[in-house]
Hints:
Elements: H1 2-23, E1 26-34, E2 37-47, E3 53-59, E4 67-68, E5 71-75, E6 78-83, E7 88-94, E8 100-107, E9 110-118, E10 142-149, E11 159-163, E12 166-172, H2 174-182, E13 189-190, H3 195-198, E14 201-207, H4 215-229, E15 233-248, E16 256-257, E17 267-268, E18 275-281, H5 283-294, E19 299-301, E20 309-314, H6 342-350, E21 352-368
Parallel strand pairs: 13-21, 15-19
Antiparallel strand pairs: 1-2, 1-9, 2-3, 3-4, 5-6, 6-7, 7-8, 8-9, 10-14, 11-12, 12-14, 15-21, 16-20, 17-18, 18-20
Amino acid sequence: MKVIMRAALALALLMEGVAHGQSIAGNWQGTLQAGPQSLRLVFVVSSADTGGLKATMYSIDQTPQGIPVSSITQLGTTVRMTISGINVTFDGTLSADGNTITGTFTQSGTPLSVTLAKATKDTAWAIPEPPRAMAKDAPAVFEVASIKPSPTDRGPGKLFTVRGRQVISVNTTVNDLMMFAYGVHPRQINAGPAWAESERYDITAQPEAAGQPNQDQMRAMFQKLLADRFKLTFHRENKELPVYAIVVGSTAHKMTKNDSNPNGLPSLLLRGLGLLPATNATMGDFAGVLQAAILDRPVVDKTGLQGRYDFTLTWTPDETQFTSMGIRVPPPSGAADAPPGLFTAMQEQLGLKLDSTRAPVEVLVIDRLEKPSEN
């Protein structure tokens, strides 16, 4: 009798899992409260061709690009989703009526409560359409550009981004603009006036051509802006400088390949000192962020890795890092659960290494630079 009862209980649990597995397909949406910021999340769940489930997550207040869910499992009322590229997990419990999943959204060890509701035709949030890409042969120039001094009470952070058709830089110096426009480290900019490193500007510009520019087109637009509005001229020299080279470690890399939008913009926005989630990023993009914001010397990509990747890098920074952003890194807390340093974290989390070496690099020597002309 006990054997029959156990078998019946197992069958009931299995049937419950199957029933809930059928009902979970659809759109699930909820608002994540990340500090002062409210972010709307949508999970689109469907049946996988090979059986089971597949899903895509959209953070619709941040980007129209979907992020593939690495794995989604359901056992009875328990739902678990993992997005390994950005170090995200969601653990939730499906309600008895099958209309909500209450759970915890965790990214890089930070848990946040969120309730996902099953969307109907009337309640579903619209997932933004990915913007149409700017034509490859379109003129890479701004039609209009507003350049204003940044507020003096703003902190040291800086940002380059695209919102719709607007290209925006926030709290950026001329050196920052040159670093972005030409893909160089501060050590590769020579002979500029002191104000080029200290005076900060907010820029809002709109390209002449329709569509969203890719990163190369954005760089070309800022090059033209620097020449037209700041009267920048320079010449190039080669110098041997200390550099860091990114190479693949002794085993294969641990990042998630992203083939969803090979021509789209990458997302590499620091979420704090020592937290860098990345989506749709090339190794060149990663090297650019390391040398522009984090490390004290130029960074070159020697991985040989092609394509784009998703990952999250979490580390404890030291006093040599973030100096180009004017940030003084606080002393390490000494906590037992603190993340490792950058060099160790890259090996453990990404399967990449930073090799310290010297190499000839191109240096931009400024010949002429003026404060920006009127808007």
